Amino acid sequence: MHWQTSRFAIDLSAPRVMGIVNVTPDSFSDGGVHASRDAAMAHCENLLKDGADILDIGGESTRPGALELPVEEELERVLPIVRHAVTLGVPVSVDTYKPQVMQAVLDLGADIINDVWALQWRADASSPSGMDVVRQHPSCGVCLMHMHRNPQTMQVAPMEGDVISQVLSFLERSAQYLRALGVDKARICIDPGIGFGKTVQQNFALLGQQTALVPLGYAVLAGWSRKSSLAAVTGRSLASVATLDIRDRLVPSVTAALLAVQNGAHVVRVHDVKETVQALKVLSAMKQNS
To answer: What is the pLDDT of residues 178-200, one digit of tens each?
Structure first.
């Protein structure tokens, strides 16, 4: 299997590591750390040295309770970093749900649109959607994620009922709609949306039953890195993100990434690239010698 993107056909015969570049002051675990242009550009290069296969750049936090960012401000944050990242020789993904931002980064040469809204967001009924932007592009990759409600309300009233069937149905329906618009199957990746409107129990149900997504025939992306569900099962307080020690979530994050790969994920989206790459090498060595 491969994931077709603007400039690259990403070989998914081995798991790929997508390194997170948050150009935000308020992301839940590293907000502000790489918010300046120089810091974000340097972070892109450091992630590649650590072994990242893909860079994922985001200018707006989608943590629970996050407020919508004006388009102009998101563009100001993201465009300089994308302009630099596309010179580094790897696929560049942009984490955005706004069609104007999608079009702008694709015009700069970005390879993938990674959208928590699965291309459904519109500014108003008469505005274009992300579906329109991706449909009109000849080859960009896209990651469709499942999110319950929206960032402002998703954890106020989490999902109810069978999470597996609901996520599976949504992702299959979203991908089929995009294919009906003429987007090739190889361009589409799906993400169950860990933490986006799900309870701790539902998140781990998705991890344990993630193989249910594989028969759909799309690339599967898993994003467990530093999520609060990991803290919930390892005994760490969830009371305040402000007091979060990211070292407390390193081992759980890497463990979740490995389990996701074993359960069919082709791409893992992570903050801790070097440690995840090392762990995946151990997993690969075991498989090769079994």
So the answer is: 999 999 999 999 999 999 999 99
Alpha carbons within 13 angstroms on the beta-carbon side of residue 266 total 18
Amino acid (one-letter) located at 156 = V
- Ramachandran sector of residue 135 (left: φ over 0; alpha: ψ -120 to 50; beta: rest): alpha
CA 147 to mean position of chain CA atoms:
12
Separation CA 19–CA 54 (nearest Å): 6
Query: What does pTM read for this prediction?
Result: 0.92
Query: What are the chain's domains?
Result: 15-288 (3.20.20.20)
CB atoms within 10 A of CB 50: 16
Report how far residue 259's alpha carbon sits from residue 122's, in angstroms, rounded to the nearest whole number: 35
In one-letter notation, the amino acid at residue 128 is: P
Residues in the chain, overall count: 290
State the average pLDDT over residues 11-17.
Answer: 98
Catalytic residues: 227, 269
Burial of 53: CB neighbours in 10 Å, binned 0-12, 13-18, 19+: buried
CA-angle at 235, arms to 25 and 266, nearest 5°: 65
For tokens 């590293």, the residue is: 30
pLDDT at 34: 60
Write the CB contacts of 40 (distance below 8 Å, at least 6 apart in sequence). Answer: 21, 23, 34, 57, 81
Backbone dihedral region for residue 149 (phi beyond 0: left; psi -120 to 50: alpha; all else: beta): left
pLDDT tens for residues 60-101?
988 777 778 999 999 999 999 999 999 999 999 999 999 999
